[in-house]
């Protein structure tokens, strides 16, 4: 497949959407064993914090057995809550 035909990654799409004046961005980074990352993602879903599909797929960091997954959330700023 040609590079021009590749769809942008979810994170690239999210970054391309401008923030509303009352929004802030927060990123959560999970770094560790693959199984621990998956368990944590599912645990956070049980608390209705974030659905697993909103996290990036665990990516190997290059260190033995270590992976990384990121969640980007957009939330109303404190000023918008007053």
In short:
The protein is α+β, with helices and mostly antiparallel strands and 82 residues long.
Describe this structure as you would to a colleague.
With 82 residues, this protein is of the alpha+beta class. It has 3 helices and 3 strands, in the order αβαββα. The chain has a 3-stranded antiparallel beta sheet. A hairpin with a 6-residue loop joins strand 2 and strand 3.
SSE map:
Elements (H helix, E strand, L loop, with lengths): L9 H7 L6 E10 L1 H13 L12 E2 L6 E10 L1 H4 L1
Antiparallel strand pairs: 1-3, 2-3
Strand content: 25-35%
In sequence order, what are the helices and strands, one letter per element?
A: HEHEEH
Annotation, overall tally of beta strands: 3
Low-confidence stretches: 1-8
> Major beta sheet, specifics?
3 strands, antiparallel
Q: How do the strands line up in the largest sheet?
A: 1-3-2
* First-residue to last-residue Cα separation: 50 Å
The total of helices stands at 3
Radius of gyration computed on alpha carbons: 15 Å
| Amount of helix | 25-40%
> What's the shape?
globular
Strand-pairing-aware structural class? alpha+beta
Mean pLDDT equals 80
From the structure provided, what is the oligomeric state, counting identical versus distinct chains? single chain
